[in-house]
Amino acid sequence: MQSRIRCYLIPTALLALACAATPFLNDYVRYVATLAAIWAVLAVSFDVLLGYTGYLSLAHGTLFGVGAYAGGLLTSRAGWNFWLALPVCGLIAMVVGIIVALLAFRTKGLYFAVLTLGIGLIGHQMFFVAEDWTGGVVGFVGIPSPPPLPFLMLDSAGNNLIISLLLLWVTYLAAGVFVRSPLGAASLAIREDVVLAQALGIRIAAARMTAFAFSAFFAGAAGALFAAISNFVAPESFAVMTTGFQMVVLVVVGGMGTLWGPILGAILLTTLPETLRVASSYSLLAYGLLLLGFMLFAPSGIAGLLKKGWRARQRRTASTTTTVAPTVTEGAR
Amino acid sequence: MLDMLPQQLVNGLTLGSTYALIALGLTLVFGVLLIPNFAHGELYMLGAFSTYALVGAGVNFWLAVVIATVIVIALGIVLDRVVFQPLDHSSSLSLMIAALAASIILQQTATIIWGSEPRTTPSPIPGVLRMAGFSIAYFQIFVIALTLAAWGGVWLVLNRSRLGLAIRAVAQNKGAAQLMGIELRDVRLATFAIGALLGGLGGAILSANFPVYPTMGINPVLKAFVVLVLGGIGNLWGAILGGLLLGIVEVMVAGYISSQLQDVGTFLILVLVLLLRPQGLFGRVVLER
Q: What PANTHER family does the entry give (chain A) (predicted)?
């Protein structure tokens, strides 16, 4: 019961809180929050792959781009409704992702990373080559904004924010369902030891393919939403060393293998450069330094640090009130 | 179409020899220390930029190459100390992510120092050799010769010196090598230094052949990883043959199909080799991958 409260009610309450706060924020804060929410969608879904199965994919920048261009094509050229296009873009990215995964899962470890890096570079190249569909270097212009949500009477910035938060909420809950399922447990077994998992008869192929497809679906959906909010997309948004690399940073800094850590990572790393107003040339350097620093000194990320702090505090309260501790801490939790 | 073939082959060989030169250092570090050094491309880039900066300051090209190579060796050793040694007992995933971070940090630092626009260094050996079916710059002949010399040098060190014996022993079995009294720290230092030397020297020399810019290392190091897959890890012959093969295939794809598909061709080969012959075209030992 308590775990169900933690995994469904808390995110829903936070979503309601954020939606209630939206009308009181100015447009700039709403815009930054929207970006943070989209990055959080990418980070949470990417963590399902990286944090739970241990496979480092560098092709996800391309999958994000596939979703974005598919969204642009469907809503502006084919005239589809945004709400229909969003899941369809996820599905398109998922199909592309499954093809990538069929190739890439023949390898593991470094080879998986190199192969997906290669696929990511080719994908980026293809966005330039397929000019008729993507607009090439010039970019894809005139993508319609998301339609206003009924009954809320919000302007476009507020509307964008609430739609992104909704997508994040759906992603988080879906990821929760996945990691608690037998497939999620199998994913963890793959991360710890592929050979042992195989020897125990765990169906590793199904588990890792589902994890890859899951991350590809939400990367695609996030791409379509990103395209609709920006009204414009260009290939440089989907390069391996920018988007693909940033996803890795958000997940590692936030905390691999927890679902809420990457959200914290996305919020922190999206809002910090905006609030500090550092030049964009330094932000990638800062990302690199952060990634290296966390890898060396706190490999379990912010989530790991928070958990450690929380446990230390609990131990302290437990030791000061030894006699009544069990019931008190149970109640407090 | 066909009368272009000799020229294409020559171009492929020169391009391939640069891939082979970079793959040589990468295969050594990966084969012996099991470190997936993504940042090898950045050592190559820093070798090129150091040479560019020194030549710009009026230093003779060949002297600049020597100084740049020494700088890169020092950087390589620092890289190993700061990034890879603390993670010695971590998973390969941690090593990979740390290498990726190091490579981004070096790229961005270079961008801040030198800016991102491409620079060029004048070739120290001007002139072109013209033959009946093809022409080749003297400098390109020099690059091919250098690659072969580098391969020969590494082969001699590995097979005809005590250090090489120790390196090969560590590559085969770390624990047993330690029991035989081999100092792991020394072998590690030497291996990383030789790897950095090959990367830095490659960058320093090739700064006269290719434009120099902060992200110039990404593509070659990626190609070098492909060469590793083609040739088999830790296989020196494989690195040379795989590099040359890759260069020729790329030039053929670019020349006869489309220059935009050059890289796509590379990764098609990579995928095909991984599917059909995962131990590499020239590899005999099946390694963990």
A: HIGH-AFFINITY BRANCHED-CHAIN AMINO ACID TRANSPORT PROTEIN BRAE (PTHR30482:SF10), HIGH-AFFINITY BRANCHED-CHAIN AMINO ACID TRANSPORT SYSTEM PERMEASE (PTHR30482)
